[in-house]
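Q: what does this look like with zinc ion bound?
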Amino acid sequence: MKPVGRNRKNKRKFRYGRLALIMVPVTGIVLTICFLACMLLGSSLDSKNSAKMASVQNSESTTLSSENSKTAYLTFDDGCSYHTEEILDILDQYGAKATFFVMNTPYNDKIREIASRGHTVALHTYSHDYQSIYDSEEAYMEDLNKISDLVYEQTGSRPDCVRFPGGSSNAISSFNQGIMTRLTKLLPEAGYQYFDWNVDSTDASGNGVPVEKLVSNATDGIGMQNPVILCHDTNEKTTTVDALPAILEAYKSSGYTFKGLTKDSFPAHHSVSN
Ligand code: ZN
């Protein structure tokens, strides 16, 4: 019986030995496959994580842009005027902030009040004389520095937001070929951001434009991500003042907040045609 037992043991040893001979390379191969699989899985997880990060970032930017989409920018050119005070009072009633692209007027003392009531004072022009400001880059910058000095005297700070008379797309300057192309490059280099608009109240189309028409045009931006609404603050634009409450009401009831422009706000740039 013993030899039989030994034989069995030997046979077992032989089987285990052969098994071990097979298992070692098999285990090696399996481990290698596992290693490679882990590497692949890892990189796939990395890419999944990257995708997840990107999606978080996207959702953050979506959240930001959806917040931005609820921000409207009311802008008033050519002030100050006899109406500035009343405009500021209406804005206060609606908890709204706006931007005033100012020029030299008999109401320069209102510039200080615009700033002290939390609105953005921005630069439009000193003279608003197309022929002289668009005569050359030097002439434009000289005029811009003059209005900047005036605002500085009134508020103690220099704006970095600018709006070209006529907007960057104006064709009035075509007497000086390419001036707007040159100025739109020059301003950012000089530390300014220029702003156009994507909603026009059309109050510059004449004096006494009917309130209903102004409200209808100015509220065309409801649904836009960043409506930048063009209005004017001059003595003649009485109906603009009359239209303001309805314009503010309409945007506010659609969930918009009115903010003043800053250098980083959406600039609503037009296509430069000169
Ligand atoms: Zn203007």
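The first helix runs from residue 2 to 68. Helices lie at 2-68, 84-93, 109-116, 130-133, 137-155, 179-189, 211-218, 238-253.
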